[in-house]
Amino acid sequence: MHGRNRSEYKSLQRENAAKLAQKASQWHTLSQDLVRRRREKDDSPTTFALIEKLLTVNPDPIYLWNHRRELLLQQVKKLEDESDDKDDSTAMQSSIWQPELALSLTALQNNPKAYGAWFHRKWTIMQILKADCKQKEPVNPALHLALFESELNLLSELLQADERNFHGWNYRRFIVSCQLHVVSGGTVNMEADDGDDGQFALPDGSWPNYATAEQPMDNDAGQAPQYSMGPQVAVTKLKADDEDGCTNTTDAPRPFMSPEVYHVIQQEFNYSLAKIMENFSNFSAFHYRSKLLPLMLNASEQLDLAEVMATELEMVENAVFTEPDDQTAWWYQNFLFDFITTTHNEANSSANTSDTPPLPNWFLEMLTAHIESLRELVEEVDSRSKWPWLGLLQALGHMPSGTDTLEERHDIINKLMVADPDRKGRYEYMLSKLDD
User: Fold this and answer.
1) What does the alpha-carbon distance between residue 360 and residue 337 come to, in Å, rounded to a whole number?
2) CA 416, CA 423: separation in Å to the nearest integer?
3) Mean pLDDT of the chain
4) For 202, how many CA atoms within 13 A lie in the half-sphere containing its CB?
5) What's the helix, strand, coil split of the chain in %, to 5?
6) Quick one: pLDDT at residue 129?
7) Backbone angles phi, psi at 89, to 5 degrees
8) For 272-312, what is each residue's pLDDT tens digit?
9) Where are the beta strands (DSSP E) in 226-293?
10) 205 by DSSP, 3-state: which?
11) C-alpha triplet 41, 45, 50: angle, nearest 5°
């Protein structure tokens, strides 16, 4: 170290090694104590305190979180067994779950990417909702929405500190799915119809493809709805008269796109834009937006595909001109082109022919203007970056067959072989496909 002689530096190393050894010894002793307590099924407050102490120091060990969840479920069972009133039992459970949210937050502040802490927080939210399932009187949805809103506010702070923390983005999708479940008419304490064994519904973290007037509900026969984002948690399916009284919504009808659902999705769409404008390299925000965009277009008849795509492509151009070496915006450009062509082909394909329907004029005009912008960009960066060349190559590939772009695409691939010799084999393959 600067300013220290060799002997002082060696002494400091020995002191640090001794401190680390002491901490490791303490950790080992406490861990062995907890192993014994788990084997003896000790659920005393001392055991809870020991687990909390270790998780505060190091939130990574999954076995500690598992042990804690075992003890928590034992506590819940005791409360339910000792109480004759389900509502009283549920009210007392709030004193169990709120400290768990506080503990997982402390753990995440120490390590924002601790898998165990994120899962424990998700599990805790599910336990709160599950407890509400068992109440005799329906829970006011506003209480759940307030809980979800507080979680989103917390996530905004965490993602501000580390905007590309994929754990945080994944948890955000989970919380928003809970919001969507409530505002779309789902509930965590659905009443059974007269004479039927009703089923309670818990959200499982999935985002369904919502039905609209143009795309009505298509799973009346009971098949699973199509997801835009799949489930994140497994929810045991139980009848209302079973012990837990909560189930998932696998067999539920495809939910309808209500104004309340649209409002939630629009908020997230705006949030993704805000995060992208803060940093064009935020792939998590671009990916989230790619999942939200189809839902937004499906949700509102007032949104025009051409106008939306013009806005999105303008954002891409701002991003690639600002950071041409970053592949994030180039990925989103390719997503937009694939989305437009796929959507158009599905909407205009005919069962009587296998011919691909021609692309709309507005898209060809937009694509042509975008290609001209990219040509300016590649002239500016020359061979210093391969990504503008690849982006231009992808854009040219979406031009209709018969368009005179073959020679230009050949030239681009030849330049890429020089600028990126490590992937020469790939570019040679691309050339061979052009000549087919």
Assistant:
1) 13
2) 9
3) 83
4) 27
5) 65, 0, 30
6) 87
7) -60, -40
8) 999 999 999 999 999 999 999 998 888 777 778 899 999 99
9) 227-229
10) coil
11) 85
Q: Which two tokens stand for residue 405?
A: 């772009």
At position 178, the amino acid (one-letter code) is C
Contact assessment for residue 330 and residue 391, using Cβ atoms and an 8 Å cutoff: yes
Q: What is the pLDDT of residues 128-177, one digit of tens each?
A: 888 877 666 777 888 889 999 999 999 999 999 999 899 999 999 999 99
User: Which tokens go with 394?
Assistant: 């992808």
Q: Provide the pLDDT confidence category of residue 221 given band limits of 50, 70 and 90.
A: very low
Residue whose structure tokens are 């010894």: 25
Residues in the chain: 436
Instruction: With a cut of 50, say whether residue 198 has pLDDT above it.
Output: no
At CB < 8 A and 24+ separation, what contacts does 65-72 make? Answer: 65/116, 65/117, 65/119, 65/120, 67/34, 67/38, 68/120, 69/120, 69/123, 70/38, 71/43, 71/47, 72/96, 72/100, 72/127
What are the tens digits of pLDDT across the range 34-73?
A: 989 999 999 999 999 999 999 999 999 999 999 999 999 9
- Greatest CA separation found in the chain? 86
Residue type, 249: T
- Measure the CA–CA gap between 140 and 147, rounded to whole angstroms: 12
pTM reported for the whole predicted model: 0.84
Which among 212, 393, 177 has a CA at the least distance from the CA of 288?
177
Is residue 207 within 8 A of residue 173, CB to CB? The reply is yes
Q: What SS3 string covers 399-417?
A: CCCCCCCHHHHHHHHHHHH
Output 234 or 45, whichever has higher pLDDT. 45
Cα–Cα dist 231/120, whole Å: 17
Q: Are 392 and 371 in contact (CB under 8 A)?
A: yes
Q: Which amino acid type is present at position 389?
A: W
